[in-house]
Design goal:
The chain has about 210 residues and is α/β, with parallel strands linked by helices. The protein contains eight helices and six strands, in the order E-H-H-E-H-E-H-H-H-E-H-H-E-E. Strand 2 (about 55), helix 3 (about 60-75) and strand 3 form a beta-alpha-beta unit. Pathway: Carbohydrate degradation; glycolysis; pyruvate from D-glyceraldehyde 3-phosphate: step 3/5.
C-alpha cells in the first residue's frame, strides 16, 4: 500500500525577491518562482506517483505553485482543498518590511530572535510555536488520515507551516526545526508506515 506525502514550499515570490517579510500578504510568484515550481513538478513526475488529493493555503503563491506542479504531473483537475491553517506564519508588525530595515529599527539580535526562536513572536504576529498550534491540528485531522489510509497526498504551502508538519513527522525539537532550511520549490517526499512513522524520505533538490 502506498502512503506518500509530498510537502513543497512555494516557488520564489515577489516579496522573497525583495527580501521582505511576507506572512499573510499575498504576492504572486516571480518568473524564477514559476520556473522553480515547474521544475519541482517535473521532478515529481519522474517518480511516477499519482495523487489522490492536494492541499494548499489560501495564499496565491502556494496555489500557483500547486497548479504548476499538477500540470507537470498530468493531474491539472485534481481535487484541491485550500485552508488558511496552512498559511505562512503571520509576521505581525514585521510584515512588508525589508529585513535589513527591520534590523535597523529593532536591532540585529532582536530580529534574529523573532526569526529563529521557536516561541518568541514578533509584535502582533506568530511564533513558529503559534503557527504549529494552528497547522498541526488541521494536518492531523484532515491530511494525515488520508495518507494513512493509503492515499498519495500533495501539500503546497509555506516555509513555516511546512516546518510545523516536518517537526511533527520527524519528531524534532523546536530548536531543531528552526534551524531547518526549506528551499523554495523543493519537494520533500515521505513514505509513511501505517502508524505514521517515516518509512523513507527523499528531498528532490534541483
Amino acid at each position: 500500500m502506498s502512503r506518500i506525502l509530498v510537502l513543497v514550499r512555494h516557488g520564489q515570490s515577489e516579496w522573497n525577491l525583495l527580501n521582505l517579510f511576507t506572512g499573510w500578504k499575498d504576492p504572486d510568484l516571480t518568473a524564477q518562482g514559476v520556473k522553480e515550481a515547474t521544475a519541482a513538478g517535473a521532478r515529481l513526475k519522474a517518480l511516477g506517483y499519482k495523487y489522490d488529493i492536494a492541499y494548499t493555503s489560501v495564499l496565491t503563491r502556494a496555489q500557483h505553485t500547486l497548479r504548476l506542479i499538477l500540470d507537470q504531473v498530468g493531474q491539472p483537475g485534481l481535487e484541491t482543498i485550500k485552508d488558511q491553517a496552512l498559511n505562512e506564519r503571520d509576521y505581525g508588525e514585521l510584515t512588508g518590511l525589508n529585513k535589513d530595515d527591520a534590523r535597523a529599527k529593532w536591532g540585529e539580535e532582536q530580529v534574529h530572535i523573532w526569526r529563529r526562536s521557536f516561541d518568541v513572536p514578533p509584535p502582533g504576529g506568530e511564533s513558529l510555536k503559534n503557527t504549529a498550534e494552528r497547522t498541526l491540528p488541521y494536518f492531523n485531522a484532515q491530511i494525515l488520515p488520508r495518507v494513512l489510509k493509503g492515499e498519495n497526498v500533495l501539500v503546497a504551502a509555506h516555509g513555516n507551516s511546512l516546518r510545523s508538519i516536518i517537526m511533527d513527522l520527524e519528531k524534532l525539537t523546536g530548536e531543531e526545526i528552526v534551524a531547518r532550511e526549506l528551499n523554495t520549490g523543493e519537494p520533500i517526499v515521505y513514505e509513511l508506515n501505517e502508524d505514521g512513522s517515516i518509512k523513507s524520505k527523499k528531498v528532490l533538490a534541483a
